[in-house]
Give the backbone structure.
Amino acid sequence: MIKALHHVERHRFLPGVDAQKAYAGDAVPIKHDDTGQMVSCISAPSIVATQLEQLGAQPGHKVLEAGAATGYNAAILGRLVGPRGHVWTIDVDQDLVDNARTNLTEAGTSNVTVVLGDGAVGLAEHAPYDRIQFTVGTGDVPVKILDQLAPGGRLVVPMRIRGSISRSFAFERDGDAWKTVSCEMATFVPLRKGVCDDVYTRVPMQGEGDVHLETFSEQDVDRDALRTALDRNQVKVYTGVKLRGNGNWEWLYLYLACALPNGLSRMPGSRPGFTPHFGWGAMTALDGDSLAYFTIREGEDDQGRFWEIGVIGHGPRAAELAEQVTAEVREWDRGWGNSAPEPGFRMAVGQARDRLTAAEPRFVVDKPHSRLVIDWPRRS
């Protein structure tokens, strides 16, 4: 895979973009909608590498990619599958399809076909595929493509668990269900214009600054009321849970995505009085007309420096929501924390859904077309 990444020159798929920007560690937007929201990009190099490693494409494989964008990822796949393999890549916009074709032709890639269509529907006429990769985000498993995967094949799909918390799942068949062989934290531009659209609603917060909320169709929230939530009195609670050294938020986010009814939403931006736990903004719990976001305070004790997790609530139910989030953070710290074994994931669709169960009911996430189960034992 490393050889393929080195061979395919990223800047050639970003005409007009400065080379330094093309090779920086960030995603590069290539298209925005009428509201200014990014609808297509070339993913950050680290994310490209992570997904390709998850996919494990081999020489001779047939691969379907949903999300052609610039054609860059498809070109790398073309190198991986070699002259005996073939890649079909799909996108929903004619301009993206045309540009990807041009980029691939100029790069000398001959074993990739770019198709205008809905990636969630797939391309049944060329099935079965050894590998199927989604480079766009989903809110549920695109069930129509499952039957297009060859026996022993692998599906890599970035899927939101609940709210903004998303992971890139590498699924393989396991009887009448599916299990992960890899699962990494990752967020992608959502599917659109198709049968499995991941409906995202941006909620700008009134008042000073540029803070906004990411909300999704499964969340039971009052979007109009939330616009003014930050203007209401705040309730601040510190959890007593301390992160140290390289302690990260990944596993807490996963836990809360399961334990909280609306999961967590990103709330990026800045404004006076907004004190999020990161420079970009904060992960936020939502409940109807109220929200509660994470903050931190730094300290030092006999074990060294720490960052204590705090919760700041706003809205009519600020106190109740802040206490609910605080209680769940403490429960995560008692039972799992950052030292628990990493979780496994299983998924089922159709009638097999009801047969998929978990030791902890909180780790069962039902979606319109699938059930996701997280197998996550408490730490010993």
User: Anything to note?
Assistant: The longest strand covers residues 149-162. The chain has eight helices and 19 strands.
